[in-house]
Amino acid sequence: MKVKIAKEAGFCFGVKRAMKMAWDELELNSDIYALGPLIHNRQAVQKYEDKGLITVDTIDSIPNNESVIIRSHGVSKDIYDRANFSNLNIIDTTCPFVKKIHNIVKEFYEEGFKIIIIGDKNHPEIIGINGWCENSALIIKSVDDLNNLNLDNNNKYCVVAQTTLNLELYNQIVDILSKELDNIQFNNTICSATKTRQQAAKELSVDVDCMIVIGGKHSSNTQKLVNICKEQVPTFSIETKEDLDIDKLSKFNIIGVTAGASTPNWIIEDVICFIESL
Fold first, then answer.
1. Which residues of the sequence carry a binding annotation for isopentenyl diphosphate (predicted)?
2. Is 122 a known ligand-binding residue?
């Protein structure tokens, strides 16, 4: 049984930066609050909670004058305002690529543009982005969603995309919108690391008998990798080595491995070592 690893897999720049910033703060002080899970990987989050991180769902759950970590997904402007009102010490680990989207949305919205966000309306990144245009954005997840938009050619539109969006989907939607609207500004805000990771997974999947994609079940970029690999070969989505089905895996000779942007190296290494030991 041979294992091949995708050229790009695991922590992206934004997640790596956020995790380091959070750990450095925990080294100095315990009992630091995180607004939502630090990343979409429960094993990694557990390590930080063991160190003293307290994960909460709302900003109102944090006592005044405490420290709060804004995770890499970013948050709405309203969250910053409420944190400042409660005199919270903000440790802002928002990914710079996400922060760029916030700035684009805020600028165009203030200039009178209607904002269109391509992404999952329930994803924390999209919820945060929408908060920079007073939650007024039109949010679409697929080409079919375009049919539900009430577009007016008399308006100005600005389009941004979730950083983990599939590039092919983005291009399809851009092609349709560009034909329907005269005054529209497109911003390809898909993270370069996301594009590279997806391309590397696609290239590897054509050279192996099956693919293993490691990452959180709730991780958007991980599930996109799963879908990309499924188009080529049988694909197994796992969080840790314990999720592997040995009987199914034993049918394959060459196994490809990739991982989502929130997957720590130690989990990837555990999976590879386990497969090689079979």
1. 40, 73, 123, 219-221, 262
2. no
CA distance 137 to 134: 8
| Residues with a known catalytic role | 125
219 labeled part of a ligand binding site:
yes
Residue 159: its H or E element: strand 157-161
Q: Which of 177, 130, 134 is nearest to 157 (CA)?
A: 177
Query: Does 217 have pLDDT greater than 90?
Result: no
Least confident of 73-82, 192-201, 228-237: 192-201
Q: For residues 127 and 78, is the Cβ–Cβ distance under 8 A?
A: no
Q: Is 123 annotated as a binding residue?
A: yes
Contact (CB, 8 A) for 140 and 173: yes
Average pLDDT over residues 219-230: 91
Could you give the C-alpha distances from 192 to 8, 68, 195, in angstroms and in order?
11, 28, 5
12 is an annotated ligand-binding site residue = yes
User: What is the rounded CA–CA span in Å between residue 218 and residue 264?
Assistant: 15
Alpha helix (H) ranges present in the chain? 13-28, 42-51, 77-85, 96-110, 124-130, 167-180, 192-205, 220-230, 246-249, 265-277
CA 25/CA 73 separation, integer angstroms: 18
262 is annotated as contributing to ligand binding: yes
Beta-bridge partners for 2: 254
Nearest Cα residue to 35 out of 80, 4, 2: 80
